[in-house]
Design brief:
Shape: globular
Length: 399
């Protein structure tokens, strides 16, 4: 990979490290913010759930804009909103404002600075046989962000408090603005790249059974990762685990996610992507069962982080690879964005449902059991997916 393609890849990698690493650290701040703001975890769970939901709902639209006008403008706008949302949380934190800053603003910003925008740009710059590997590298970068940023977030929380940590994060987020200029890619002429074949592309995707099954599976992925990212720190704290154990459990998710994302990106280029996805979801269910069955200790908590991390976003290169295989890359950002919307609907329910369960039932047990059932469901629904290009009715020059 040379020249402009390498620039696009590296720029996307560093954007994902910042955006995903910062976002994945928010769960660490929930217990402290809950006490300082004198609110239940359900309130902060709602803010992070809104973040997940807005990220998903906005992603197809933002992806469509990226397909039309390129990823540079979208990345710049997302970086600005991300930095402002974090800064607003620092200067003006109350239960209502947090819903807007940490929830709505960051949610919108994530749709412009993460996988939909970056994978759309990368997908246009690499040959078809290399796309799944490139997507795996990008996903691994987001995972490295979690590994690198979460321990730093715990340090900032311990030394500066959650408010000071958000100030530092706002400066870090602003670095995504100059990085966005590296996402410049050539776009097709308007008549060929955006317009005449947009309607047929959307209609074909929305009437394709395999596409909907992919949406269903990614819904489960979102539920799992949001529940664990937001509520695992509180779960461990409730069971008398030290803050350092929590930080390292989340860091292990990030570290092993690097390995899992890259490995499954490579495997997806050689083996059936739908069977790999089915295996990933089934393995998640087994990991959760073992975590609940074994006595909780620092060792099992960190081991759970590593095991879940290996399976964490390994779904992204496989799912995005299937979207590209089925529909090409012309509207990759939009079509993946629609699938990602279902991921984030699941994430909303995982983040909010965890807070609701704790405040109303006194524990997270029900959500853990529900997560196992969803893992089984996701393992099943991927099996009937047809892994082949879908003819686009009325489309021209499919990539």
């Amino acid at each position: 990979m040379r020249g402009q393609a390498l620039i696009v890849l590296l720029s996307g990698i560093f954007m994902l490290i910042i955006a995903m690493g910062t976002r994945q650290s928010f769960g660490i701040f929930v217990p402290s913010m809950s006490m300082d703001l004198d609110v239940g975890r359900q309130v902060l769970g709602l803010a992070l759930a809104l973040q997940q939901l807005l990220w998903g709902v906005c992603q197809p639209v933002i992806g469509l804009f990226a397909d039309r006008w390129g990823s540079v403008r979208i990345g710049i706008a997302g970086g600005i909103i991300y930095a402002l949302g974090l800064f607003m949380t620092y200067v003006w934190a109350d239960p209502v404002t947090v819903q807007f800053s940490l929830g709505i603003m960051i949610g919108i910003a994530l749709s412009g600075t993460t996988y939909g925008t970056v994978l759309g740009a990368v997908g246009r710059m690499v040959p078809p046989e290399k796309r799944t590997q490139a997507f795996g590298i990008c996903t691994a970068a987001g995972s490295f962000g979690m590994f690198a940023v979460v321990p730093g977030a715990q340090y900032l929380l311990d030394t500066m408090g959650w408010s000071g940590a958000f100030l530092v994060f706002s400066v870090l987020a602003a670095l995504m603005i100059p990085l966005s200029f590296g996402l410049k890619t050539p776009l097709p002429p308007q008549g060929q790249g955006f317009g005449a074949d947009l309607g047929p592309t959307i209609r074909t995707a929305l009437t394709n059974r395999s596409y909907w099954l992919l949406n269903a599976g990614f819904f489960v992925c979102g539920f799992h990762v949001a529940f664990v990212a937001v509520h695992l720190p509180s779960y461990l704290r409730d069971n008398n685990m030290a803050g350092s154990v929590t930080a390292w459990a989340l860091a292990m998710i990030g570290l092993f996610n690097i390995i899992g994302s890259y490995l499954f990106g490579q495997l997806g280029a050689r083996f059936s992507q739908k069977y790999l996805l089915s295996m990933v979801y089934g393995a998640r269910g087994i990991v959760i069962i073992l975590f609940l069955a074994l006595p909780l200790s620092p060792v099992t908590a960190i081991a759970f982080g590593g095991a879940m991390g290996f399976l964490w976003l390994s779904t992204v290169p496989l799912t995005s690879g299937l979207v590209a295989r089925m529909f090409g890359v012309r509207y990759m950002a939009m079509l993946y964005g629609f699938v990602f919307m279902f991921h984030q609907i699941g994430a909303f329910l995982g983040a909010y449902g965890g807070g609701w369960a704790y405040d109303h039932l006194g524990s997270y047990d029900m959500i853990w059991y529900f997560s196992i059932a969803l893992a089984v469901l996701a393992a099943i629904v991927h099996l009937p997916i047809a892994e082949k290009a879908v003819p686009l009715r009325g489309a021209v020059g499919q990539a």
